[in-house]
Design brief:
The chain has a two-stranded antiparallel ribbon. 14% of the residues are buried. The protein is built from three helices and two strands. With 66 residues, the protein is an alpha+beta fold. The longest helix has 10 residues.
């Protein structure tokens, strides 16, 4: 499977994904680019900003359930 397919399957199964998690799970430094490609293909992926334990805000992607 490609990184994009792995990310899509993870999100479709109800998982969430931050850039650090994507690096650890799927060895990608380009989560926002892969998500952009998936969105352009019509997949309903949303993003929230979440605060880390250090106070920084990072993107967290998830599958939008209709």
């Amino acid at each position: 499977m490609t990184q994009k397919q792995d990310i899509l399957l993870h999100l479709m199964e109800g998982g969430t994904l931050t850039p650090l998690e994507a690096l650890e799970r799927f060895s990608t430094l380009s989560l926002s680019q892969r998500v952009g490609e998936l969105r352009r293909a019509g997949f309903p992926i949303e993003r929230d900003l979440v605060q880390t334990s250090t106070g920084k805000h990072v993107a967290c992607y998830y599958w939008r359930v209709p």
